Structures are given as structure tokens and as C-alpha cells.
Amino acid sequence: MENFINKFLILVISALLIVTYIWAGNTDLDLVTKGEGRLIVKGKNQSIQVSDPGIISQLFVEEGNEVTQGQVLAVINPTDAEGSLEETRKRIAFHSASITRIDAMMNGATSLELKSRLGSYDPETTLAQIELFEAKTASDEFNKLNFVNRRDQLNIDAQILGLELEAKSELLDSLLSEASEILPLVEKGVIGNSERYRIEREQSNIKAQINSYSAKLDQNNKAKEQLDFEEKSFFQERISEMLTERLDHVSQIEILKTSLPRLEERLKLTEIRAPMDGIVNRIYIKSSNAVVKGGEVLLDLVPRNNALEVEAYIDPKDIGKIEVGQNARIGLTAYDSSKYGYIDGVLTNVSADAVFREDKNTYMFMITTKLNSSLVGSDGKIVPLNAGMIAQVDIIRGKQTLLEYFWQPVAKIKDDAFRQ
User: Fold this and answer.
1) Rounded Cα distance, 203 and 138, in Å
2) Quick count: other Cβ atoms within 10 Å of Cβ 48?
3) HSE of 104 in the Cβ direction (CA atoms, 13 Å)?
4) What is the DSSP letter of 400?
């Protein structure tokens, strides 16, 4: 009886072993290569940089906020840009007002007329230009009056010289008449020669005075001509100075106007705006009043409404086992795989070279996996997926039976046996 039981047990065990062998030889297992990564938006994230150095005045977004194209994300030091633009505009206004003042002076306008023409300028600029206009006008009037007084004096001198010359001419005529009466008497001996000598002396003296007055009149006329020349030269020089000053103001306006677009653009750039619809993924500078350098990255923006994919890393020792086109099984740490299952995917890209991961302090190959399905909750609804979620990626590189799975360690031990 005991012998029968032993034989029966041997048969049962043998049958179980045969069944197990058949089952292990026909049961397939997936050959997988594991990687770890995160969900990213298909398409490149955009880093928002600061164009000019400055101070963050306001930050309007937080990580995870959705933004639309053109939305203001932050304001960088607007007071400096506004100040530079305002200063340039004031300088343009000053030069423009100066041109208006010069035109008014050249056209002989009054102070009230100039004030009316400067009505569009700020009171400070208007007052300064009017004061300068009045000062220069007063100076010109003083010089005009000086020329008038000098001309009047020359006219008076000429009038006096004319009267003196006329009087001396009449006196000479009188002496000539007297000589015509006395000289015959001297010839006859009625009167002595002393009278002849006296008349000749007086005639000579009067002629000398007449010549002197005539010379002084000529000198007076030349002085008038010189005065006219000086007056004309002076006011021509004043006109030339005003034209030169006007040209300088026009040149300054043109130079300043060329800088206006750059300053206006700089003012716009102080408002950091979203270049596209997206989600704020990461903010690098979160505090207001923080000093930033030109070109420094303020935040990262993830494109919105773009498909998600998985960016993961594979150990270099496993890179020879995978290739583009292999199927993948993706699990998310945010959702329990036993409840939500896995996402089907396909390997779309393998990096040509290993990249250094600072968090792991090692080199790894980066892979990209496309998502072909979604996660469905127990209520039958598709669960939302967000960029940044941690993902576990299993790259399915083939099949093996359960028997092969158990035999691999034995085969490896066999291959390594006695090698040392």
C-alpha cells in the first residue's frame, strides 16, 4: 500500500512538473527597459528673458497660471525708461520752442504774439523762451537805438558844419567885395598897402577855415557811410547767428527723433508680455524689487493646447536594447497604476549622445515617447494630464516565455562559471 502511494505521488508531481513546464513555455512576458522622466508639452518651452538690466517692479503671474498672448507678465523698472523718454521729449520740445522764438524774432513779432505761438508747450518752456526773446529783443533794440543816436549825432555835426561853412563862405564873399573896393584905392596910393595885407590875411584865414569845414563834412559823410556799413553788418550777423542757431536746433531735433523709437520700444519692453498662449511653468525670479541683468531668464512658458509627450532618461547600459518605433507602457506617479492603468505609447526619439544629469550626477540617454491613449478613472472619465507630471516608462522591446525568464539567471551563471 505504501509503495502504491509513493508511486502515485511521483506521478502527480511529474504531471505537475510537466504542466508547469508546458505553461511556462507558452506564457509570454514583456521584455522591458525602464526609464524615468516627466510629461512635457510637444513643442519647445519658451524662456522669457529681460531685455535690459533693471529692477522688477511688479510680477503679475504665478507658477501654473494660464496666460494669453500679449498679457503683461511683469514690469521691469519702468520709471527709468519713462524718465529717459520724457527727458528726450522735453529736449525736443525745448528745441522746437527755440525755433518758434527765433522765427518770431526774425519776423519782428511781439512778445504777446510769441506767447500765443507757444501755447502748446508747457508753462516752464514758454516762460523761458519768452524771457530769452525779451532779453534778445531788448539787446537788439538797444543796438538799434545806439546806431540811431550815432547817426543823429553825425547829422547834427553835419548840420553845424554846414552852417559854419555857409557863414564862412558869406564872410569870404564880403571880404572879396571889400577887396574890390579897397584895392583900387591902394593902387592909387589913397590907402596904404597895410590894408591890402590885412584883406589878404583875412581871405587866406577864411579860405583855410572853409577848407577845414569842407574836409570835416567829407569826414562826416564817410562816418555816416561807415555807420551804415556797421549797422548793416551787425544786423546781418545777428540774422546769421539766428539762422545758425535755428539750424542747430533743427539738427538736434532730428538727432533726438531718431532715438525716440528706441526709447519707446524700450518702454514697451519694460512690460514683459507673453509671446503666446501658454502656462507659466517656472518662475526664476519671484521677488519684487529684485535686480535683473539684461538677457536674464525671468520665467519659462509652456505652450498651451499642444499635445503632451514623455521625456525620459535611459541608463547607458540599456541603450543598445531600444530603438525608435518600439511600444511603451507609461505610468504616472500622480495616478495609481492599479486603479487608472497605463498609457500606451511609442518611442519616437533617442538622443544621439548621452547628456549629463546633475540630479543623478551621471550621464544618461534622453528618449521621447508619444502618448497614444489616455488614463480613464473609475467613473469612466478621462483624467487630466499636465506637463511636469513624473512618468515611469517601460519600453517594450520584445517577448520572452516564463521559462526563458527563469532560465536566464541559470544560463548567466553557467556562462560565468570557472572564468576566474
Assistant:
1) 53
2) 19
3) 23
4) E
Of these ranges, 27-41, 178-192, 210-224, the one predicted with the greatest mean pLDDT is: 210-224
Q: Do residues 385 and 335 lie in contact, with contact meaning Cβ atoms separated by under 8 Å?
A: no
Percent of the chain with pLDDT over 70: 85
CA atoms 188, 190, 193, 196: torsion sign:
negative
The strands making up 46-49's β-sheet, listed across from edge to edge, are: 46-49, 297-303, 278-283, 66-67
* pLDDT tens-digit map of 55-69: 787 888 888 888 888
DSSP string across 279-348: EEEEES--STT-EE-TT-EEEEEEESSPPEEEEEEE-GGGGGG--TT-EEEEEETTS-HHHH--EEEEEE
308-314 and 72-76 as β-strands: parallel, antiparallel, unpaired? unpaired
List CB contacts of 57: < 8 A, sequence separation 6 or more: 74, 75, 76, 77, 78, 79, 288, 289
Long-range contacts from 137-141, C-beta under 8 angstroms, 24+ separation:
137/105, 137/111, 140/105, 140/238
Residue 215 reports pLDDT greater than 70: yes
pLDDT at 167 over 80: yes
- 80: cell is 527709468
* Pairing assessment for the beta strands 46-49 and 66-67 based on DSSP bridges: unpaired
Q: From CA 24, how far away is CA 271, in angstroms rounded? A: 67
pLDDT given for residue 322 in this prediction:
85
According to DSSP, the β-strands at 390-401 and 271-273 are: unpaired
Q: What is the pLDDT of residues 315-353, one digit of tens each?
A: 888 888 888 888 888 888 888 887 888 888 998 888 888
The rounded mean pLDDT for the chain is 81
DSSP code of 381?
P
